[in-house]
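Notes continue from the previous slide.

Worked example: a multi-chain complex. Inputs as given:
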Amino acid sequence: MTNSLTSKNSVTELLRRVPDFEKARSNDPSCMSHEDDSPYLVFGDFGLFLLKRLKDGSHNSKDQPLLREAFGFLDEMLTSTEPELINLAQVGVIEVLADSIDAFHIATSYLSPHGKAEAERFMR
Amino acid sequence: MTLGRISQSHPSVCGGGKAFLGHGEWTDKIECCRNTGALKPAQLQQSAKRLRLSQWTVAGYRFRRESYEFCQQYKRCNCISAELHAGWCLSWLLLLSVLSDSITGNNLVWRKISFAPITTSKIRVVVNAAATDGVARIAEVEAWTGSTGNTISNVQWLVIDHLGTPRMIFDQTGNLASVKRHDYLPFGEELSAPTGVRTSALGYSVSDGVRQQFTLKERDIETGLDYFNARYHSSSQGRFTSVDPENAGAEISEPQTWNGYNYARNNPLSFVDPDGLDVEVFWNGSSNGKWYTDSEFERFKRDLRKQGFGVKNGKIYAPVYDDDGNIVGRRAIGTYESDMNSLGQGVSAELARRNDSFQRFGEVGMMYMSFFVLPASEGSLLTGWLGRGLETAPTQVPRALLGIARINLLSAVKNAKLRNFIEYLYREGATVGNGSTADAIRFERETGQLLSKIGHSPKGREAIVGLEPLIRTGKLDPKDAEIARQIVNDLKSALQ
């Protein structure tokens, strides 16, 4: 069951809907949010998690379902009507993905037209 | 006017105002524009006093004597209004005059400008005719890049690197969004888009018309050679195109100087060669020209010491060797100031100097517009353009010099968690500031323009909350801990 996404429950929902990220974060003490659930740090780690997978070519193989789930969640945030949630996606995740132009383009290919437009508008 | 030398008065001076740029020798030829009246000698002398020619006592200027000549000429011509245009061959003289049928008050004033004679078509003198004759006239000497006939001057601010090379060009607004960038290989070849990560969107390979390029030298667009006064330098070859004139820079103790063609002793990252004759460390020793953070400045000094230079008491010394290679002394090759030269301090000093009525171009590493306001009291000087520079530049430009902060930090940091913070907080290819979240916050606060839906402040606050425990754990090595502290301090400073 999918709960309505808000800035209040965004971290909980992220960890629930993208369990691979939750697992990676728990096992990696170098994650910024390893012992801290501050939303911007958690989503920053989420951005780094996605960036790593997009850079190593995972999007072409077995990780595709993971990426579809992850970017589906990100798309939901970007197309939300809650400014805090959009901001979290923009400066927490999109900004990290933008470190690689290629990764950013791949990332936007997973987004809906609305989400893609929101991400690209932010990047301008 | 021929070659800047005025040989006769302008036909329109009677009943109107006109500013003239005198450049050349004294002239004793004064022609009347209108022969409609006569002035008594006493009146003429009074006019001369209003010109204050006799009060300017700069050595070599013979204003007193010339003022009497002026009177004599005036009398002979028997006219009611005329101008004396007098310059001095060593400098430019701006004679700002406001004439009407009768000269009253302090309408005739002048200022000396001490920069070298200018031949470029990109300098012009403008008289603002909107000012009232009874109060003041405004004359502007502008460095501009507008096309011929363009009345809009495009002032550009050049942000230089440690060699004096302009790396970032800002327009008159100081807005980082329209910055143009230039990168060079060590010997001066320009790296253009799409080399590496450089793109036109980032400001590379975008035409800006700025003539000062590698180490502030002009590049001949036809030959690609850089003009270094005594000779030309070929950046693609990394060599001068002609030999060192009379071995001007050669030293028996410095083998690299024995080759008369080499540039900056084959050490172009440390030295510049301002005149094509000898090298020096780019540091003009005045309170303008360069701005370092304290840590950058300390690093600069350490680098110099590693290369065998002495850095002490405001001077930089090079060792002097005897024929056997023993150090037998040292010689000063440059100067520095004891601590950080902020842009604010630099411009303040520039203001103070300008207040002394001597104007200069280009010393701050920028092309800027000089601005004269000469009211009757002569007490109100220099607002306007220079003032705008003061408002925008100190908060934006120096930090922007750290445009490769992310790369530098990542290469210096070992701790994996701290590296994640840097990757999170410093964005590659960002066009605001140095790409850091702190600069994004500053930009948002200074401009009121949010870069994301509700801005970067929440991200900055949480990053501080995440970094401070990391510092407190003591698990970071001292260098990493220091970097982490700097990042936190930068964020806190931005959020204040």
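Summary box: The interface with chain A takes residues 415-417, 419-421, 423-424, 427-429, 437, 451-456, 458-459, 462-463, 465-466, 469 of chain B (CB under 8 Å). Chain B has a mean pLDDT of 58.
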